[in-house]
Amino acid sequence: MKVGCIGLGDIAQKAYLPVLGGLPGVELHLQTRTPATLARVADGLHLPEGQRHQDLDTLLATGLDAAFVHAPTAVHPEIVTRLLEAGVPTYVDKPLAYELADSERLVTLAEERGVSLAVGFNRRFAPGYAQCADHPRELILMQKNRIGLPEEPRSMILDDFIHVVDTLRFLAPGPVDDVTVRARVQDGLLHHVVLQLAGDGFTALGVMNRLSGSAEEILEVSGQDTKRQVVNLAEIVDHKGQPTVRRRGDWVPVARQRGIEQAVLAFLDAVRAGKVLSARDALATHELCERVVRAVRERSA
User: Fold this and answer.
1) CA quadruple 264, 267, 268, 269: dihedral positive or negative?
2) Is the pTM of this model over 0.90?
3) pLDDT digits (tens, 9 = 90+) for 198-228
4) Among 36, 64, 83, 204, which is most exposed with the fewest C-beta within 10 angstroms?
5) 223 Cβ contact list (under 8 Å, min separation 6)
6) How many C-beta atoms lie closer than 10 Å to residue 222's C-beta?
7) How many whole angstroms from its chain centre is CA 125?
8) Which residues in 46-69 are b (16+ Cβ under 10 Å) and which e?
9) Angular region, 217: left φ>0, alpha ψ -120 to 50, beta rest
C-alpha cells in the first residue's frame, strides 16, 4: 500500500510519521519542497530515494493508494483538490480550509468523484474522550487554553478552537437548537471565546482563553449525579461520591493517547476495505466555526 505524507512540519514528525513509519505493508512516500527537511526526516525513517519527493507531481506519479496532508492550512485547497482529482483517498489535518466556501467545494468534489476525504479530528478517537460518549452528558464543558497567544480571530478559531467545537458536537447527546457566542477582542486579536450549544436536556460549553496563564485542556461531562473529567487527554477522573483517578500508562504512546494512531488506522482500514469516507459531518464543524468567526467579528466591530 503506497501512502503519501505531504508536509513534514511538527505535527507530521511528532504525531503521524511515528505511526505511519511503523505500519507493516505500508510503503511510505514523503513530499516537501524543503530539501533539508526531506533528507533529515527520510533519513530518520530509512527511506530510499524513490520514496522522497520535492513536488506533488512526482509523488502522484507513484500511484498512491492514500495520502495524508500536513502542509500549512493556506495550501490545503490546492493540494487536496489535486489529490481528489487524481482519485487518491485523502486524510487532511484540520481545518480543511480557512474559508468555508473552499471547505464546501472540497467536500462536494470528494462526493462527486466518489473518493474518501477525512479530516483529522483526532479527539474523537482519543480513549479518554471516546469513553465520555458512554457517560451521562446533561452538561458538557471543555476548556482549551494557552499562554500569551492572542491571535487574529479566523486563524485562531479554524486552527485551534475548531477542536473544541468538534468535540462539543461529537459529545452532544442530541440535536443543537441554540448557539450562543461570547468573545473578547482587543486591537484585532482574539483573547478568549466562549461557545454555548444547547438542545433538549443538555448544554455544551466550549472555552478558549489565549491569555490564561496555563496551557491546558480539560473536558468534563456530567449528568445523573456523576461526572467524568479528562485532563490533558491523559488523566481520567470519575466523580461519583469519591473521585477515582486513571492515568495514562507509562508506555502508552502519545499518538495513541491523543487518538492519532486510532484515526490513522481507521482511515487506512477503510481504504483497504474500499469504503468511501465522507467529510460531510466534518463540514458541519467548519460551518459552526464560521458562525463563531462571524459572531466574534460582529462583537468587535
Assistant:
1) positive
2) yes
3) 999 999 999 999 999 999 999 999 999 999 9
4) 36
5) 135, 136, 137, 138, 139, 202
6) 17
7) 10
8) ebeeebbbeebeebbeeebbbbbb
9) beta
